[in-house]
Amino acid sequence: MAAFLSLAESQRRIAGYLNRFADAIARQDGATLRPLLAVSSAASLLPLADALSNFSDSSRLVSQSDHIAQFAEILLPLLRSIQSHRLGRFAEAYSSYEKAANSFLQEFRNWETPWAMETVQTIALEIRLLAEKGDRELASSGKSPEKLKGAGSFLMKVFGALAGKGPKRVGALYITCQLFKIYFKLGTVHLCRSVIRSIETARIFDFEEFPVKDKVTYMYYTGRLEVFNENFLAADQKLTYSLARSDPLNMSNMRMILKYLIPVKLSIGILPKMSLLKKYNLMEYSGVIDALKTGDVRLLRQALQEHEEQFLRSGVYLVLEKLELIVYQRLVKKIYMIQKQKDPDKAHQIKLDTIIKALKWLGIEIDTDEGECIVTMLIYKNLVKGYFAHKSKVCVLSKSDPFPKLCGKPVMT
Amino acid sequence: MMNQGGEPGAGINPSSSEVNYVGQAHAPSNPYLTSAGPQLWPPPQPPPPQPAPNSWSYRPENSNTHNGFPSNYYYEMQRGASNQSHTQTGPSTTPNMPAQGYNSTPYSTSYQSSPMDYSTSFYGNSYGNSSSLQVAPNQNTGASYQPPFQNSVGHTSSSSTSTTTMSNSNTYYNASGDHQNTASTTPSYQSSGNYYQQASHNYAYPSYNTSYQPQYIQPYYYNQTAGGPSIGTDTTSSVPSGAGHGGSYMGHGGAAGGYSSHPTNQPPPPGTTSWLPDAATPALPPVQGIGATGYQTQYPGQFQAYPPQPVDSAPAPDKLFVSNNANQGNIIYSQPPNMHVSSTNQFQQAPEIPQRQLPPPPPPPYTVQMPDMHQVQGGSHLHPNMVQMPDTRQVSKMQIPTNPRIAPGLATGAVKVDRGSISTSGLAKPAYVSVSVSKSDTKLASTAEDADKGAFPVSLKAYVERSFARCKTDVQRNANQNRLKEVITKATTEGTLFSKNWDLEPLFPLPSGDSTNTNNTLDSTVFSSLNKEKRKSRWEPIEETPQKKVEPLSNTSNSGPSNTRYNRPEATPKTDGRNWNTMIFVKAQKHSNFNNSGPGRFKKQKTNVFIRKQTEHTDSSSDSDKERELTKYYSSAISLANSPEEKKKREHRSKRFDKRRIESATPNNSSSIVTRKANAMLLAKSYDDNNGPDQAVEDIDWDSLTVKGTCQEIEKRYLRLTSAPDPSTVRPEEVLEKALEMVQTSSKNYLYKCDQLKSIRQDLTVQRIENELTVKVYETHARLAIQFGDIYEYNQCQSQLKRLYAEGIKGCDNEFSAYHLLHVCLHSNNKRDLLSSMAGLSIQSKQDDAVKHALKVRSAVSSGNYLLYFRLYKAAPNLNTCLMDLYVENIRFEAVKSMSKAYRPTLPVRYVAQVLGFVKNSEEKESETTDRSGFEECEQWLKAHGAVLTSDSTGDLQLDGKASMNTLYMPEPENAVSHGDASLAVDDFLTRAP
């Protein structure tokens, strides 16, 4: 197609683009401006990209008239970026785009009203997407992927431009979320902290005033961070917030949130219905949940092993692994209930041998010392009320509420 | 003294224990001094009072450790302190000051460890040390009249055996003894020698005349100042001042010249005394005078000059001090700026002398004179800017030939001197007193200043300094002095001394100076600028052109001191500024080290370790640290020290100092004559063009900078590069292989191996060798580090290994994945890291025993299963045990906490011991004895953690669960250190060194 493009047509398209760009800024028309910068996602830029490959002297067009030339620092790299992107050279496209974005940010700083907020957000999104593409390209050619990191530091600059006082602050959370995405992808989540601090300590601006979509995203990511830290209560609160404000019909978002919320809820003793797992295709948790219900330690281990890679990648493995003690609790409780049926008077005395035997049935071989250790931990973590007599190897349960429920509280650490 | 010790402010410098001493010593005598001390004495007394000083005072017996240990610690502090001091004293003095600081360092360093080595190491630290030495003597004297003081002395005394010859004041001796100890115990005598002897010398006085002691003290101080000469700055000052005095000093200079043959001259590291200078010069003569009485020591001339002070002091020691202070205070004010000022003070004093009527000392032995020489030389070194006396230069030159050794460092010089003195004079008691004294002087001076209420505003000092800074000849200096005196007197009488803005005060005109001198100064500046340039990029290739230029300049123009000291002229064909950093230097150090007998060695090592961490954080000084570190490491034959090769190397080192000093002296000289290679230019350009250093690094064409090594030596010390590597000091791959083998089979301790491995790593890096050898080196190092518990070094290796494995280079990656897992889950406890490293394990590596083990450990830790942990601990493959070791305490504590909650009524301690890994598993039935000792250890441990133990009817110890629940606590680790990182505790670290 490009080959059939006449020179004049190419020139006309480029000039048209430049004019639209300059006019949009002159009129402070964010809606028009925004798609002009959406390098990777706006279909309307395709013809322009073709024209650019056909017409090499675009810089002359930029410098032709003053009202365009004043934005030359934005436009020249922007055009280059559009062209590179069209040619599939993403790393180059990213580099040019970052230059353009930098120049645009300069301008944006000088504009008092946030009319271009949407454009800035588009830029933030675009730069991340371009960086990801660029990194993929670099990685496949054996070079070190570093564009996303660069995008991260650029977005920090953008964040700096927005995060102060004033009307531009509304956009800060969006940038924060883009930063989260980058940091999580890069595995540098510790960098999130400074951004979070800046968002959460700002008294001037109520968190609720941010757009809902940003709040949901923000809560999702900060909730995930809390999962990493095994701060289950905070994680529960944030992820629940996020879940409650998400569109229930948006399956992928709901699933993403639930992926973290479910392990958190399990850790504080709340089990989901199987239908929920089915609805959002989270069946990897079903084994874990069954194990918790039945006290089947072997099942838990199997479930963890089966989905180990997945759990490791999402970062919930360590959380799920800790459920083992709760499963033990369930097992001991079952023994207790059976004993109670047989002989209510002696039910509160559970012999260590019984527990060991039960585990043996599950295919788990432990010796006495290990058994003692497990019981000790159960008592220590308040999952079992009672004491253990070393001499007689008997676990004596408390008469009242020997197996306290977690009831939304995490296991004591 | 104790009291003062208690005061943090006392001005005792944390930096050097010795310094502390000084502070203490003074303190008793003059409260003022102490308080003032810190300010005046910036170098020694870096503000933060450290624990170390206290410890020092508390445990005399430890003097050795103290020296070795704390000193290191202090060193760093001092460094900082010295910097500060520079700034303080010398806003006005700027050029001089920095230089001094540098000089000082070398000095001190030589001091503590083996003298030779140290010369290289430099920096403020040395300063502190030297001062401390000097101080010590003072203290002793002080002690004689002041009881509290003595205590401190006593403790010191224990350390110093060598000094025994000196019968007199134990205290004094002790001080000197301490120094020696630090330096190097056995052979050492020589090395420490200068100080030592000097100290003893001083000592002699006090012991000699008890009645005189008070007097002595003062002289003593003076002596110290005189000692200052050893310190470069002091010396410079002293020289001019001497001239001013009417030649008493000069006479010395002449004597010194005669002595020049003595190697000793060099000893005073130029930098050390920088701030001290003025005080020192005046002080010396009095001391000597005293000494003369007692010992018939050295400078008669000086003696005469100074007598007045002793007289004053005679009535009451305290008073004496005060008066001294006052005098010194004057001096001091002059000091910071220039020695000349001090000389004026001296003038005043001089007249008094006759009144004093001290018995004229018999002609001093040569040895005595030596100190003077030192002063002279040092002075020249210190103040490159200042034109030096022709005499001094000559002296220095003369000396050079005679004492090749001296060049490397003062310490060496000092040692030699001692020898010489001994041989010539036999007993050698006399001689070197001056050096040791210097510190106290400075202190006094400083204190005096404070006491005087500063006597003069800072701006005035700056003014004085400025005025002297432009003096290029003696004539000018003298004129300047006189003029200054007038100006100041006028201001004082008018009462405008403090109100006047001296910063704005125009300088009075001076008589024209002689042309050569001017040239010299110019040259020196040029030189410094060159250095500066070089510093810019460590990656620049070595350039040859500037070097040539520099050399001649430095010889002639640079103040005599540097030349003399370092013997520059003679040797080093390569004077290239860059070179000094390179390996040659390192090698030299290696050889130069004295043999340190066991204890001494240890100390040094400690220091190294200690310093290592810190080096990370200290930029400019890190090199020196490393060097010092290194020097400390090795104990090698002294015999090597005298070889011509060795000399050369030393010169290199010394040059390095010089350059630095000069550099610092004229920091702002932007005119650069440096011609760089094209490559370097490119580099610089890219650096400039790009916004950040990061980019510059990216853009560097590494290929063009990659070095191909030619060095064939297998052993090489590590020295952090600060310039482009020199191929002649880099070992090629074949040699590195041998080096690795050597390290692997070596029976030396970890610190040595660590150092060697680091140098191998460095050579690999600069040659960009990344193959299986590289992996092997890192693996070897990582294993050693794990074994030794050096997590810091392990981390470095691990991160490199991770990268190398990722590049497909074969190695024991499973073993190291296991280490990494253990490290992350046990030490850093970063959940995300843990997850990602777990996720990064391939199926194959999960089959590996070590990895499996590590995964099990992780799981045991995360579930809190202490039983499993200790079972795994006993079955650990490779070095997994070593990493698990560090977590044992935590997991035991958690375990006992849970046990005490879960078990009722009691739990046999025997069982606890078995479960928590104190004894072997019962099944294994190890021998009864090990069982029992494990049981006892467990009992101790439980008690230490607050557990309540009871005995049951059969006499078996039981853990009372209920009672223990609330009494358990984690005791403060015994080796807790104030900085919170127990792994940094040198004591602990060293004791672990095999």
Description:
Chain A is mainly α and 413 residues long. Chain A is built from 22 helices and three strands. In chain A, helix 2 packs parallel to helix 8, helix 3 crosses helix 6 and helix 10 runs antiparallel to helix 11. Chain B has 994 residues and is an all-alpha fold. Helices cover 67% and strands 1% of the residues of chain B. Chain B contains 49 helices and three strands. In chain B, strands 1-3-2 form a three-stranded antiparallel beta sheet. The longest helix of chain B is centred in the N-terminal third of the chain and has 27 residues. Classes of the chains: A mainly alpha (413), B mainly alpha (994).
Q: How would you describe this structure in keywords?
A:
heterodimer; A: 413 residues; mainly alpha; 3-stranded antiparallel beta sheet; 22 helices; 3 strands; elongated; B: mainly alpha; 49 helices; 1% strand
TL;DR?
With 413 residues, chain A is mainly alpha-helical. Helices cover 67% and strands 3% of the residues of chain A.
Break the fold down into its secondary structure elements and pairings.
The complex is a heterodimer of chains A (413) and B (994).
Chain A: H1 7-27, H2 30-37, H3 46-54, H4 58-64, H5 66-69, H6 72-86, H7 90-110, H8 117-140, H9 147-162, H10 172-186, H11 192-200, H12 212-228, H13 232-245, H14 251-267, H15 274-279, H16 286-294, H17 297-306, H18 308-314, H19 317-321, H20 324-342, E1 349-351, H21 352-361, H22 368-380, E2 386-389, E3 394-397
Antiparallel strand pairs in A: 1-3, 2-3
Helix pairs in contact in A: 1-2, 1-3, 2-8, 3-6, 4-6, 6-7, 7-8, 7-9, 8-9, 8-10, 9-10, 10-11, 10-12, 12-13, 13-14, 16-17, 16-20, 21-22
Chain B: H1 2-6, H2 17-29, H3 31-40, H4 51-58, H5 63-89, H6 96-112, H7 115-121, H8 123-145, H9 147-159, H10 170-183, H11 189-208, H12 213-227, H13 232-245, H14 248-259, H15 277-295, H16 300-305, H17 308-313, H18 317-334, H19 339-356, H20 366-382, H21 390-402, H22 410-425, H23 433-451, H24 458-469, H25 474-494, H26 515-536, H27 545-556, H28 560-566, H29 583-592, H30 598-617, H31 622-633, H32 644-665, H33 678-689, H34 693-699, H35 702-705, H36 733-745, H37 750-766, H38 772-788, H39 791-806, H40 813-828, H41 831-839, H42 843-847, H43 849-863, H44 866-874, H45 880-902, E1 906-908, H46 909-915, H47 928-944, E2 949-951, E3 957-960, H48 961-965, H49 986-992
Antiparallel strand pairs in B: 1-3, 2-3
